[in-house]
């Protein structure tokens, strides 16, 4: 008989971040390799003042961003929008359609 999985509780301040190529600190909260989940992941990124993320796209993943603090802008396929605390944005994956190129700047 299968057992029900136990809840997983993590605290960001207990995780060791890795440094991305653009200088962002990435905290991988949940991913298949560290949690047993199979179809999603959850990460928190921190980009310093006056920094730019490297423009990029994903072949098959979807992303949800939520701005906790600070101001900046996001450029998606050449269209720029302002970011402020409370802003959320979603990049959806549609099979056989190329992903949008995205970049964040603070």
Descriptive report:
The chain has one helix at 32-35; strands spanning 18-19, 25-30, 42-46, 63-66, 72-76, 79-83, 88-91, 102-105. The protein is mainly beta and 106 residues long. It has 2 domains: 1-46, no CATH class; 50-106, Sandwich (Jelly Rolls). The strands form 3 sheets. Strands 1-2-3 form a 3-stranded antiparallel sheet. The protein has a 3-stranded antiparallel sheet with strand order 6-5-8, with no helix packed on it. Strand 5 (72-76) and strand 6 (79-83) form a beta hairpin. The termini are far apart.
Brief description of this entry?
By secondary structure, the chain is mainly beta.
What's the average pLDDT?
82
CATH class of the largest domain: Mainly Beta
Give the spatial strand order of the biggest sheet: 1-2-3
Q: What is the radius of gyration?
A: 16 Å
CATH superfamily of the largest domain: Jelly Rolls
| Beginning-to-end CA distance, first to last residue | 51 Å
Task: Provide the succession of SSEs.
Answer: EEHEEEEEE
**Alpha-beta content class:** mainly beta
Could you name the ranges where pLDDT drops below 50 across 5 or more consecutive residues?
none
């Amino acid at each position: 008989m299968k057992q029900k999985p136990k809840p997983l509780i993590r605290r960001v301040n207990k995780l060791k971040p890795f440094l991305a190529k653009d200088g962002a600190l990435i905290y991988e909260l949940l991913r298949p390799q560290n949690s047993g989940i199979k179809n999603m992941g959850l990460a928190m990124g921190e980009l310093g003042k006056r920094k730019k993320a490297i423009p990029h796209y994903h072949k098959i993943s979807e992303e949800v961003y939520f701005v906790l603090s600070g101001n900046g802008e996001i450029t998606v396929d050449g269209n720029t929008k302002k970011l402020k605390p409370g802003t959320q944005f979603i990049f959806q994956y549609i099979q056989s359609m190329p992903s949008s190129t995205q970049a964040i700047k603070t």
